[in-house]
Specification:
38% helix, alpha/beta, methyltransferase, seven-stranded mixed β-sheet, Class I SAM-dependent methyltransferase, Methyltransf_11, S-adenosylmethionine-dependent methyltransferase activity, 7 strands, transferase
């Protein structure tokens, strides 16, 4: 089924894409770990701050950060929030743990090595789940979406900040040309919102372009499972 999905996606995009798997992601971020903050920290900072600010405005203390990386966002959360971070890369997590210790972030309750497509948490364990620059990294973003929906309680919130592919113009051509390099990069340059969720079947509360130049986008929605339960109760 995964091969059929990849073939269909390639047909829709009109170009080839290199498939990611857990091992290729681990290897890519083993290489990136030592320079990640320097190379990506600045350009991704706007989107990260927007996402954390959105989390800080929501109700519910239990927050899951999926793809916590080196922990760049951790100092920005409200101190009354109970934050758990997961990541597939042990090397990135080691840096995140150093950050938590250095900055004395007592509200960070755990940093766990875990596959975002197969989380070990029970259903409804969190009030909020946020994935920053993670959706285009995992092998199957729809599985990520399903798992985040599962571990967030009814009435909770899902947030994603990510680069989504352009629909045309020079940037689209660049993203298309980079697509076969996905395994080496550790992310999909041609990642589209439809790779994460079905826009026709999933109600998105807000989509907000983030600086610089709208390269990143913040997407917010209520847990789809929660929405179904609320409608059934009315």
């Amino acid at each position: 089924m995964a091969d059929i999905g990849l073939a269909k996606g390639a047909e829709e995009r009109g170009h080839a894409r290199a498939a990611l798997d857990a091992d290729s992601v681990r290897e890519a971020y083993r290489r990136w770990a030592g320079v990640y903050d320097t190379v990506f920290g600045g350009v991704s900072g706007f989107g990260r701050r927007r996402a954390v600010a959105a989390v800080n405005r929501l109700t519910g203390p239990r927050v899951l950060e999926v793809g916590v990386g080196t922990g760049l966002a951790l100092p920005q959360y409200r101190r009354d929030l109970q934050v758990v971070g997961i990541d597939l890369s042990r090397h990135m997590l080691e840096l995140a743990k150093q950050r938590v210790e250095t900055e004395k972030l007592a509200n960070v309750r755990g940093l766990l090595e875990m596959d975002a497509e197969h989380m070990a948490f029970a259903d409804g364990s969190f009030d909020i789940a946020v994935a920053m620059f993670t959706a285009s990294v995992v092998p199957d973003a729809k599985k990520l979406f399903a798992e985040m929906s599962r571990v967030v309680r009814p009435g909770g919130h899902l947030l994603f900040v990510n680069h989504f592919a352009a629909e045309g113009g020079p940037r689209w051509w660049i993203e298309r040309a980079m697509a076969p390099l996905s395994r080496r990069l550790g992310w999909h340059p041609d990642f589209a919102l439809r790779d994460l969720l079905d826009p026709e079947a999933t109600k998105v509360e807000s989509i907000e372009a983030c600086p610089p130049a709208g390269i990143f986008t913040l997407v917010q929605l209520r847990n789809p499972a929660a929405a179904e339960q609320l409608l059934a109760a009315e």
